Amino acid sequence: MPLDRQKIADHLWADGYAPLGKLLNAGECRALRTLYGDESHFRKHIDMARYRFGEGTYRYLAYPLPEKIAMLREELYATLAPIADEWMKALGLDAKFPPSLKSFLALCKKHGQTRPTPLILRYEEGGYNCLHQDLYGEIVFPFQIVIGLSDPEKNYEGGELLLIEQRPRAQSIGHALKLGLGEAVVITTRYRPVKGTRGYYRANLRHGVSRITEGKRYTLGIIFHDAT
Question: Considering the entire predicted model, what is its pTM?
Fold first, then answer.
């Protein structure tokens, strides 16, 4: 999986997100959509409407993760960890992320975070996801991955990935991204450094999904920190 770390870093510094291209083929996307119907692979099922998160459902995968997802999580973490360190340094935060996912998950475990967080989401017509942040404990990795498992040209309409950045004493900035089948994007989990007149400051980001106007949309989310 050849990824240009510098290009990814440049996009993240500029916008708080970075396109990663196509990481899954059509067959792999189909297999993950099918997997959603087998509860034995998941540790928890969430009905968004019940918690007023939106309209739709999602399921957190259980350990061991499917081989492809485990591989992507490991390789993407190794690519992003040095960028995460640069962000923490810019913000003056005393945080440094281990170079490997295995070491990072060991750190999560020390803080009581042991439950896997990669998840598959499903939306049908009328579905949406409210703006939110995926924080599951004290340890938070500043990036996460979103991969489209459905084809927006064939399977659904609407359903853009929404990113909203809130800057102090300024109006919010919004991005609406359409992910093709198997296409991935890395987004900011919580906040990112933005250059100001007195150095870098934190800009908070939240993400969600606009309403599905037709069809059905599946998405894979790869979050790196485990949950309490």
Answer: 0.96
